[in-house]
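tool_call: predict_structure(chain=1)
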Amino acid sequence: MTGRRPSDIQPVHYREPLPYIVEQIVQAEPALDPAVITSCVESVADKRRKLRELAQSLFIFPGLLTSGEPNGSRLVGYLVVSLQEHGAKNVTLPRCARCGRGRPLLGLNKDRQRVCGSCQSAELVQTAACSACGKCKKLTGKNRDGLPLCKRCADASYSGDYRTPLRAHLAGLDTGIDPGTLDTVLDSALPQSYQQREVAWILEKNPLVLSTNAAASGSHRLVLLAEALIQAGAGNITVPSCMLCGASKPIRQHIEGTRCCRQCYETHQKEPCNRCGRIANVVVRNHKNEPICARCYRLDPLNHELCTECGRADLIRHREPSTGQRYCGRCWKGPLATCVSCGKTKPCPSTRQGSRCADCVRRANAEPCAECGRVLAVSSRTHSGAAVCPQCTRMKAKTNCSQCHNVRIVVARLEGEPYCKFCYRRHPASFRECESCGSTERLHHFGKCASCVADLLLQDLLVDDNGVIPPDRQRLYEALSESTPRRLIAWITESPAVPPFRQLLSSGTEITHESLDALLPNRAIDVLRRALVTAGMLPGRDERLATLERWLISFLPTISDSEERRLLERYCRWTHLRRLRRKSAVTPTSASQIGAVRGDLSRTRTFLNWLHARDIGLTDLTSADIDKYLTIRPEHRGIATFINWARRHGHPALPHVAPRASSAPRDLIAEDERWHTIQRLLHDDDLHLGNRLAGLLVLLFGQRPSRIVQLTTEDVAVADVVTLRLGREPLHLPPQIGDLIIQLAARRDNWVQIAVDKEHPWLFPGALPGTHLSAAHLSDRLNRLGIRTRLGRNSAMINLAVELPSSVLAGLLGIDTATATTWRAFAGARRAMYASEITRQPPGTS
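tool_result:
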């Protein structure tokens, strides 16, 4: 769980909103049954967010239920109505701040007081001089220049046919669509007369607005018209693109008058989370109106409730207002609706015939059963193709097993007696002699065992036109032969990489990394490539780095300006690729390193597109432009690296941008929780051995998953004590952890499907031949045990930094001395903060 600061402790009305609300109502209505009060509250506020909103109003405005003040949430009015319907006498409806009538108040006036819907509408109507007649009247519209009009003048100005000039204007653009299609487009995009008038006036002022991206800065209906024309196949129409990022996406949002896509809008709405400090989208605000991000909201136990279905404490995905049942995300299967076919209330996807449940959809194409004659859903068919219903299929396939006497599917009959799958596999009759090798085992097919079938399939894959395996493929044959027979059979018969590989072999093309790169890149090709490397047919290479270089080939052309494209290419080559290639000679590139490079380049592209959309070149870039961009995209502080690099390489006039300063880690695990998890990992033998060791390395020695998966048997030394080399100096392990690492080194799991390397050095082998486990997969495994690796590492490093000097810490854990010094500073600051908090506490508290 995320560590909670003292300022994060929420008041009782925020932690337990329902009891607080019921208590306030009981004080106002002591004669009313608390159970009835609870029912009324839950009918008005069916979500925790609404309960907190209502509780906050009653907390800020004491006596709101009986005073009739026009303050607080609009839910107060609905709550009073519900209570009065159940016999409440003392509660009073809030009175409108404008007309004084008691009723549920939905709106707010300029003084942030509650008003009824009628008064809110009346306040929105302005009274001023009409631009046409000059009389002071209520204004209801505007003319084509945006000046106000009264109702009479507006009706006179708006009269007329605007559809005809629209049709004529679009015909003059030579869109290439026929008049009938054009009328359909107008009806879908501009169904109302006022919408047609609005767009007609815009086109009258700027006839070329649809041929340029100026439509993106026009009205919403103009954008819809442009999109509808393009969807209908019209030519000479420019796709409206986002004014911020330049992407051709639906633009439905505004940022300070600038139309943009949803991604830019959500990015602009991000704020620093009050809990973790990250800049993220705000999903809720606490009682102090401080922003909380989705991650912190999801992890906060205050937001968890018991699921009615599974009983686990989690976020509630759905509530049933009538029954009060709550469902978490695991148990909620979709929106409930009444099926139009069976009439049952079930999760029902929408169809053209209405809401129909999955069972009714399957029954829609039912046929008469060949066995019982009933018209039911088809479960199987006979040899002649006749339909068999599910019940008859089960009856025919199942019977009492002669050995275990359970009703199961019969897979064999021995001496006339039925055997289920489990009993047959234990019977000696299931073991037969292979007609090829003579071994006695369970045969695969056609009288041959799995080993012989795998060898035949492998030879068929690798032989040349003369029917023999060439010498250059012999090593691959030997490597693949080491695979588990059934896994090898599954790979040859099912892998999507085998058909193109077979074509490469038959065409005589030399097998190289480049020839494999030309194939469709996917996981199956990666498995094949690693098998070829293991067999020695291909030299080893850094696959993640090669993948990044292939990605750059498709990424760079997305930058429209050629000069900026060349500049970004130079930046990538000399800043990122040069560094990664140098490190790759020592250790393979990690997925996080590649992700960081791609993220940096994507941010830089977005920044260049933003400049390009505003006709700002790099030579004209100012600090004000950078500040404006970072105001819109505060999470893009990383562009400082590119700007400072460009400043040193050909653009000295660019302003210097200060890089983001590192901050102390704020997410930690409570010490009692950390040690409880450590004890569990040490003593729970039911947990996976690799997960236990990895969790201990995270929680005790602050190791990242990316470092743990790179551990080899050479890093482990066994003498008087077991040592593990994480840095320059070997780390002496406690006996219990030493025993775990010895066991893991002795029996390392190998999940490789083909080309098994029995001599691999990895303590955590991966699924690809000759590779270690991915850091992301190890993190997922630890997360399923409740170990959040970043929080665990932060807590471990803080504790180690308190106890050890920087030089010792760096030598033992394999980190830089400067990094160790930074952790020492973080640990010192945290201890000082803790001491300060203790001294500020009143006497007698703890």
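agent: The longest strand covers residues 407-414. Proceeding to next step.
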